Amino acid sequence: MRAYYFDNAAGDQRLPHDSGNPVSDETMRAIKALHWSIPIDDTGRWEQQINAVANERGYKNSDIVEITKEGLGDLYESKLKGFYQE
User: Fold this and answer.
1) What is the DSSP code (8-state) at residue 6?
2) How many helices, marked H, and strands, marked E, lie in the chain?
């Protein structure tokens, strides 16, 4: 995993926006940011691994969100921006 500070530059939010200023492991631990490396595969094993983490941590709810231009039409760009504003 690689963490960096967002550069807040205008433009497409889907681009990396890497400020070039990495977040240290110490900072990640200090803010209690947890992370796992779960590769996506076609067999669905990734979903089993996510469920295992959720069970281990006692998480009760989860969502899988698939946002596509075909599915949302004209709302696509505004919905996508909402994820980055949150």
Assistant:
1) E
2) 4, 2
21: closest CA among 8, 35, 36, 34? 8
Place of tokens 């550069």: 7
Nearest-angstrom CA–CA distance, 78 and 76: 6
CB count in 10 Å sphere of residue 28: 14
For the whole prediction, is pTM greater than 0.70? Answer: no
Does 86 score more than 70 pLDDT?
Answer: no
Domain residue ranges of the chain, discontinuous segments joined by +: 4-85
How far apart, in whole angstroms, are the C-alpha atoms of residue 21 and residue 5? 6
pLDDT of residue 52: 95
Instruction: Give residue-wise pLDDT tens across range 11-41.
Output: 888 888 999 999 999 999 999 999 888 998 8
